[in-house]
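Note to self: keep these together.
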Amino acid sequence: QVQLVESGGGLVQAGGSLRLSCAASGRYSGIWWMGWFRQAPGKDRDLVSGIRFSGGATSYADSVKGRFTISRDNAKNTVYLEMNSLKTEDTGVYYCAGRRADYGPYDYWGQGTQVTVSS
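Structure:
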């Protein structure tokens, strides 16, 4: 069993920054790729960014390119999402998720952390 726990959400003004963390515990050695998703009120859960644990390949949604940076600390089994120049449309619940391959459905999900960007 794998547990993913997010932290770092909060309330910030537009233009500000936040850093989210996702710590993995349990049988996490099988996780190959980690992603951050965002779900705004009344909308679908969308992929924001992803990173491969081995080698560090990354991907970003167009809406966050140049503003968000994903990184990982393998020693701490933690993935981070550094969010800069935040916009009101970045508001939502952010979830981290893990899967055992580069592609396919995500197998593990965290409980989510709220990010609210005020104007």
